[in-house]
Design goal:
By secondary structure, this protein is of the alpha/beta class. The protein has 6 helices and 10 strands. The longest helix is centred in the first third of the chain and has 12 residues.
Length: 207
């Protein structure tokens, strides 16, 4: 059965954040809050944990996993960024956006989209997520917590505990953080393309 931490959304308890980071480092799968909805994540180098997330969400090889990081400078090692994409991401982050970019050789092939060799990146505006990233001192491999056959992410940590408590190692209850997933913008081609309209305003990409 998973552990269940109640962490304050504005003043995350350092002790619990440290414990959460240790669970990630030890190969754990963690549910945690973001600025759009809850997400499920694991250590970037852990194939077994990534496969567990695939099983929970029933994800195929064409799924773009996302690397959650603290800053664009931290994430830039994993993606090929031109000046246009860099300016755009700097303008919109931190915030509820996921950007799809061509992956660099730093990214293990198993994390990429199988055909296009892309990866998602995201910089959330959520104190619990950022505190966990600070403690890890590296990005977190992540995916929105949307279960198979559902249209929207899970919202209630107690529902998560009942539904997924036997399949993950930690659930962080950070209070209500919304039910909309991120807006997803594909920047790996010349023209930005909105893949999913979510919480982030995509009017900038109209036309």
């Amino acid at each position: 059965m998973s552990q269940f931490f109640q962490i304050h959304p504005d003043n995350p308890q350092a002790r619990l954040i440290r414990q959460a980071a240790e669970i990630v480092r030890d190969g754990g799968v963690v549910i945690y809050p973001t600025d759009s909805s809850y997400a499920v994540g694991c250590h970037i180098g852990d194939k077994v944990s990534m496969d567990r997330i695939r099983q929970i969400r029933r994800l195929g090889p064409d799924h773009n996993f996302t690397l959650i990081g603290r800053s664009l400078s931290e994430l830039s090692a994993y993606t090929k960024l031109d000046n246009r994409a860099h300016r755009l991401i700097k303008t919109l982050t931190p915030g509820p956006y996921t950007f799809i970019l061509t992956a660099t050789k730093q990214v293990p092939k198993r994390l990429m989209h199988a055909k296009r060799k892309t990866i998602g990146i995201r910089i959330p505006d959520n104190k619990i997520a950022l505190a966990l990233l600070d403690e890890l001192n590296e990005p977190l491999l992540s995916s929105t917590l949307i279960l198979p056959d559902d249209d929207m992410p899970l919202m209630d940590p107690y529902d998560m505990k009942d539904t997924l408590g036997h399949r993950v190692d930690l659930i962080i209850d950070g209070g209500y953080c919304g039910y909309e997933p991120t807006s997803v913008v594909d920047l790996h081609d010349d023209v930005p393309r909105v893949i999913r309209v979510g919480k982030g305003d995509v009017s900038l990409f109209d036309g």
